[in-house]
Amino acid sequence: MKKLLALLLTLTFALGLLAGCGQTETTSSDGEESTQTTTEQGGDAQLQKIVITEQVRGYHWAPAYLAQTLGYFAEEGLDAEFQTIKGGDATAPVLSGDAQFCLKGIETALMVNEAGQGCKVIVSTTQKYPYQLVGASEEYSTIESLKGQVVAGGQSTNSGPYSFAKACIASAGLDPDTDVNVTTMASSGYAAAIANGELQAAVSANPWSAKTLADGGGVIIVDGTDEQVIKEIIGSESYELFTVITSDALIQSDPELVQKAVNAMAKAMKWMESATPEEIAEKLLPLFDGAEEELLYDAQYDKEHEVASYTGYHTASGFQAAINLTKLAGGITGDATEEQIYDESFLDDAWQALANQQ
Question: The pTM is what?
Fold first, then answer.
């Protein structure tokens, strides 16, 4: 825990420079990078600039992106700048005050709070586990067939994909620490490692990635959106993995700003619920340059499998599953309470305001 806290404090200073200069790495859903200056709405002087950091640009945080492209942030007097942080923790600028919000998984909020840095999940953007465990071929089409093999679990041992890989392996009666070599690897390297025989399975964090592996001869072993299957593995049909996080300090110092941001994202979730996949993909495209095909596929998959949350709230069972999985991955050792991790009072007020407008 001390090592994690020290790392976060170090990154706070290093990434604070990045947050202040307006330069950001924008990352498409297939992982390709480009460096550019981001002022999504043209820099209207009447709008208050907010910075939203992310580890990667991903479809499952769609309400945050749509709040910008649909003009809902602007309606609240805000203009969002999205900064993709590579080579560091995207939470650090939020903890230092150089950014206001961060797009991360629930395990991040658990780890940050246990490390003594106060933050809260203010919106959950998904309600089901969107990950898939994909075998390299028919030879590796079951969890049992992975005994003695290598499985990729994302880029970090403290990540959601890594804990998902371990949970899947444990559910089949195998020891994820000794029976299978769960390794870390960027998803961009999966295909080459499989082709070279270095990898027998991998966790896909988004539908397009899973499709790419399947098109190359891969086999879906575990589909996290299958409620019956995932309940057997993590103990819950729901799992609010993708979240929007802010610091306790901002909630205390400027709750009005937090409320405005949540209002905008609530409007985006309401819009998403009735929008078609084509409409969603079109409105997201300005922030996903060149990823039209991936966006449409992810949006269609999202609708068909009911992955997105249209309320922003969490479930008790999903939260307990998050604790269990983050422990399994070694990210935390203790049990947090829901009150320590979530502040959904801003959602309550946002939905009440929307109801009053009808």
Answer: 0.84
